[in-house]
Amino acid sequence: MTRDQAVVRGRSIVGAVVGIAVLAGCTSTVDGSGARQDQGVVLRDLAEVLPTGAEVSRAAGNPLSDSEPPTVGGIDVLPNGIRDNAAADPIECLGPATPFMRVVYEVGDVRRAAWQEFSNFGGGQTVSSVDAGVVQFASNAEAQRMFGAFVTQWKACEGKTVRSALPDPPGAEMRQKVTNVKVDGPTLSATVINSDNQGDASFPTERAIGLAADCVVDVDAAVTGGQRRPAERAVSLARTMLDKVDHGR
């Protein structure tokens, strides 16, 4: 199995769940959370917060394109096929392993959400796919609360492996090990090592979320080619999105 086939297999989890189914004036930051003024819910164009194909390609270091338009709406637009340990074990570590899952975000007061996939499989590039999403909460304070909870959760998951059943062959299992969890002001990042129980090649996925105003942005980048070294691509893209939130887009 090629590396691109491996990432397609691994990332079919996100595709399957779809089928089955952010700092406007931070005054201080401590361990990933900061104090800021709460305001009313801002009417944001979340599609404009998402990165462009050019921004994604620049962060990835190779061309990636969007095959579908952004998915925008309420919390119901977030992928919802994974709900418990039967689908991903341990479920409490799904957040650092897989981006913008509904079960991860629904514990907060979510108002709106948007996400989009970018990919280029089979071209021999280093990064074969990127997922980028943004979730808007009812207030700055609620977004800050959720980001702080994610910091605690991701740290607790470091070194743990999330196991998820794959569609085929029978008994196939995706394994996502959470490593290298870091907090840098309004961004939280990790490297997820993807493998399976079929002996296929493993590859890293860069993960990052970020806090700005009433939004949390959520990004992953699958590094399946080249020397497959994490290089803060997801963090760079998350910061691009945070800047859009900060500037009112």
List keywords for this structure.
Protein Transport Mog1p, Chain A, 7 helices, eight-stranded antiparallel β-sheet, PknH-like_Extracell_sf, PknH-like extracellular domain-containing protein, two-stranded antiparallel ribbon, single chain, PknH-like_Extracell, alpha+beta, 249 residues, 28% helix, disordered N terminus
How would you sum up this structure in a few lines?
By secondary structure, the protein is α+β, with helices and mostly antiparallel strands. Helix content is 28%, strand content 31%. InterPro entries: PknH-like_Extracell, PknH-like_Extracell_sf.
Number of helices: 7
- The succession of helices and strands, N to C, reads HEEHHEHHEEHEEEEEH
CATH architecture: 3-Layer(aba) Sandwich
Q: For this structure, what is the CATH homologous superfamily?
A: PknH-like extracellular domain
Largest sheet: 8 strands, antiparallel
Number of self-contained structural domains: 1
Number of strands: 10
Shape: globular
CATH topology: Protein Transport Mog1p, Chain A
- What spatial order of strands do you see in the largest sheet? 3-4-5-10-9-8-7-6
Distance between the termini: 42 Å
